[in-house]
Amino acid sequence: MRIKFAMILLTTSWLFEYRIYLVGQSAGAHISACALFEQACKESQGDSISWSVSQIKSYFALSGGYNLLKLVDHFNERGLYRSIFLGIMEGEKSLRKYSPELVVQDQSMAEAIPLLPPIILFHGTEDYSIPPDASENFAEVLNKVGAHAEVVLYEGKTHTDLFIQDPLRGGRDELFEHMLAVIHAGDEAALAKDAMAPPMRRLVPEILLKLAREISPF
């Protein structure tokens, strides 16, 4: 009995270990990209690590900014003044260090790139907090250096629509469906079950969602 239980634990551990999907939104997308690249670099150099990039099946990044050198002026125009932002980042020199779009082009990342999981970047075309070209440019750079990246743009969506307003609205959730399609790729039974799932229930009246969209600073 103990042997069977141990085998179940090992099997469960193996399944969980290799069905991990990394997701980040906005600043979370930026930070998780930094962490992912740093881990891949350590792994490629043979450093001691507590987890492997190979454990992550895909990385989903939503509405992120990946080149701080390009974004600092945009943030300044949006109200996050340059002096404040540079104070948070501890000076302009750190902007390059914490810009995944630039880091991945560094020669030190050459051997780490093959370790990276598939990267899918989601962005709304009406995102004024971080313009959609942040994801488009990042995807272009990633593919250029040999990583596997895809960008998905959602027409008319703002910085928060995809992960706040749309789920609250109920009905069909494009982002959720896209993620499920990636997670369940190759699993016909799971995909069939997804297709038969009932629409999500509305949680908030539409008038409140429209009002929130109008007054949201994002």
TrEMBL record:
The organism encoding this protein is: Carnegiea gigantea
Q: Which protein family is named in the record?
A: Belongs to the AB hydrolase superfamily. Isoprenylcysteine methylesterase family.
Signal peptide, first to last residue? 1-15
Note the superkingdom of the native organism.
Eukaryota
Q: Know the name of this protein?
A: protein-S-isoprenylcysteine alpha-carbonyl methylesterase
Instruction: Give the record's membrane topology.
Output: Multi-pass membrane protein
Q: What is one cellular component GO term in this UniProt entry?
A: Golgi membrane
What does it catalyze? [protein]-C-terminal S-[(2E,6E)-farnesyl]-L-cysteine methyl ester + H2O = [protein]-C-terminal S-[(2E,6E)-farnesyl]-L-cysteine + methanol + H(+)
Q: Which Pfam families match?
A: BD-FAE
Query: What are the entry keywords?
Result: Hydrolase, Signal
Query: Annotated Gene Ontology MF terms?
Result: hydrolase activity
Q: Which PANTHER family match?
A: AB HYDROLASE SUPERFAMILY PROTEIN C4A8.06C, KYNURENINE FORMAMIDASE
The record's subcellular location field reads:
Golgi apparatus membrane
Q: What are the residue boundaries of the BD-FAE-like domain, all occurrences included? A: 19-142
Q: What is its main location?
A: Golgi
UniProt-listed Enzyme Commission number(s):
3.1.1.n2
Q: What class of enzyme is it?
A: hydrolase
Q: Does the keyword NADP apply?
A: no
